[in-house]
Write a structure and sequence with these properties.
By secondary structure, the chain is α/β, with parallel strands linked by helices. The protein contains eight helices and seven strands, in the order βαβαβαβαβαβαααβ. It has a seven-stranded parallel beta sheet with strand order 3-2-1-4-5-6-7, sandwiched between helices. Helix 4 links the parallel strand 4 (77-80) and strand 5. The chain is globular, with a radius of gyration of 17 Å. The relative contact order is 0.16.
Length: 242
Amino acid sequence: MTGISAARVIVTGAGKGIGREISSHLTELGAKVIAVSRSAVDLVSLREQIGCETITADLADAEHARRAAEHAGDADLLVNNAGISIPQPAMQTTIDAFDRTIAINVRAAMIFSQIFAGNLIRRGKGGAIVNVSSQASKVALADHLAYCASKGALDQLTRVLALELGPHNIRVNSVNPTVTLTPMGKMAWGDPAKSGPMLAKIPLGKFADPIDVAHAVAFLLSDQSRMITGVTLPVDGGFLAT
């Protein structure tokens, strides 16, 4: 895919789930992936699978995130995929859970974007950033106060970065998936009593697979989307249309 083949792409949260699928797909398209994850074990297996560079870092720590972004060095593309969810009822949401969710889902994306874009500007190069957000940025989900707040913030981070980095030919977009059937997603949504009501709200009648998200990310990174910036692209089977 034009703009991805031979590009250096940083992918955070690359060890598992959606991030792992994104890393694998981009490698298939000819990119050289720099994979960032908290789990060294996951990175070892990913490197054996796709031949990527690896960086181990806990992105909940701002200084660890900054060092990881600096260590990644010059790159052409960035995917801010790292994210967590700590389900708690709104009235029982703890400060620790809220702060950790914001730190990983939003602050780490800001830090990586600042350093990545700063390097591009220094080199006089254009590029693209894709943030992996969620349909939870658009609708309220019970027991997900911190997560919904973080993804709403990530969408706004996307828009402001698109506004300010556009003059440097750096595009910034997000993808906003519905429930995605990673191994963890299958465990969380395997009970028909839980999945049924959600599926009933999706016109296509199915949840997303990780490759569905990876395809959308690749499109937004590629030159095929060269006039697209500042968008939050649903990958939700029509959920937000209902």
